[in-house]
Backbone:
């Protein structure tokens, strides 16, 4: 087997990439990753330089994996700034590093596209050997696999040298569809006080004269698309002082090439768009969201980013809603704590040992946090 690295995903045929991934997950689609590159959100001075991998044997390609050469930790959502500071204090460089992830997207999912006839352990062993060689050649401190899907996690566990991979856990909040037939059916699973609070939040939005619409794919008009981007850009500017990691061209490319995977929530007041949130979805899950607002309206964020998404999942029969990372406020609105996983290969053996000790301590705190978070869920207990 031999591995080739590509500085742009455009050099890997989309049909080959998508066939090997064999997944409906929108974030590993060739079109999504290509949109990031074509729009300039990845590459150049963004801190994300593509090094996508293609593994082949004498019979042809058998695996692909997204890979990036990183010069910082922005847009990853698995925070290792402290590790970089520790390296610096010891006169060592933490950057550059290699990262297998979906830029700016803290969404768990497939990270390895694999031919059905290939042996997963042999393939991952070959890929990691190539990664280690690239890391040595380009003086990278290590390799980081972020928000790994279950399949690749299982392969790493099977591998004999699994101790070389440091396992890190974090907590996100996801909503799960328990065969709800309507939003009222979902609310019926809440304790009375929590149910009243949620209804009150939705009522605040309605009483402000705000109407909500959900649009998918070709239903989204040019006016609504433009309104979404204005909302997104305005909110990002207020929050961080810049227009956001993702630019207008990126969203336009998504609309052009992945419209069937887009759902847009549009909020209007006096016939004017005042807020909007953009989601992606597949046959199993809703993923979100890119959000923005032009007006400060009580509870509108919860309505546009959570409740409209839940209603969409119930209507479509989707099993899960992943609304993004962080946010304990999601708990009382029915989003349960779940663990996400990342794996880290650290080239320096001394730092590998030190980081392993840190992660062992962090895991205990993460488990305690998850258990504590579960106590805040709004659902009835024992049928009451």
Residues:
């Amino acid at each position: 087997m031999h591995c080739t690295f590509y500085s742009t995903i455009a050099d890997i045929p989309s049909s080959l990439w998508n066939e090997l991934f064999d997944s409906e997950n929108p974030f590993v689609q060739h079109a999504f990753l290509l949109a990031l590159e074509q729009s300039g959100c990845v590459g150049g001075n963004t801190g994300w330089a593509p090094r996508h991998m293609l593994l082949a044997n004498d019979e042809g390609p058998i695996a692909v994996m997204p890979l990036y050469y990183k010069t910082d930790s922005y847009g990853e959502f698995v925070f290792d700034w402290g590790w970089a500071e520790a390296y610096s204090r010891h006169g060592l460089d933490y950057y550059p590093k290699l990262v297998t992830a979906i830029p700016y997207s803290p969404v768990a999912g497939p990270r390895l596209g694999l031919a059905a006839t290939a042996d997963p352990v042999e393939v991952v062993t070959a890929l990691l050997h190539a990664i280690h060689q690239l890391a040595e050649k380009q003086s990278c401190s290590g390799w980081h696999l972020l928000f790994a899907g279950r399949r690749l996690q299982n392969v790493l566990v099977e591998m004999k040298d699994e101790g070389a991979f440091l396992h890190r856990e974090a907590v996100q909040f996801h909503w799960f569809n328990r065969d709800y037939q309507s939003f009222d059916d979902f609310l019926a699973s809440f304790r009375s006080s929590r149910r009243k609070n949620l209804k009150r939040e939705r009522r605040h939005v309605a009483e402000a004269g705000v109407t909500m619409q959900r649009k998918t794919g070709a239903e989204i008009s040019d006016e609504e698309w433009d309104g979404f981007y204005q909302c997104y850009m305005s909110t990002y500017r207020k929050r961080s002082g810049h227009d956001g990691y993702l630019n207008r061209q990126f969203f336009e490319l998504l609309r052009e090439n992945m419209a069937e995977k887009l759902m847009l929530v549009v909020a209007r007041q006096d016939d004017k768009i005042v807020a909007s949130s953009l989601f992606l979805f597949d046959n199993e899950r809703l993923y979100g969201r890119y959000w923005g607002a032009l007006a400060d309206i009580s509870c509108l964020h919860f309505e546009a980013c959570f409740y409209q998404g839940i209603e969409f999942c119930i209507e479509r029969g989707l099993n899960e809603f992943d609304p993004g990372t962080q946010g304990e406020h999601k708990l009382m609105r029915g989003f349960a704590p779940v663990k996400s996983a990342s794996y880290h290969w650290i080239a320096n053996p001394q730092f590998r040992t030190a980081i392993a000790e840190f992660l062992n301590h962090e895991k205990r705190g993460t488990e305690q946090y998850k258990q504590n978070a579960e106590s805040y869920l709004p659902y009835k207990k024992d049928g009451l």
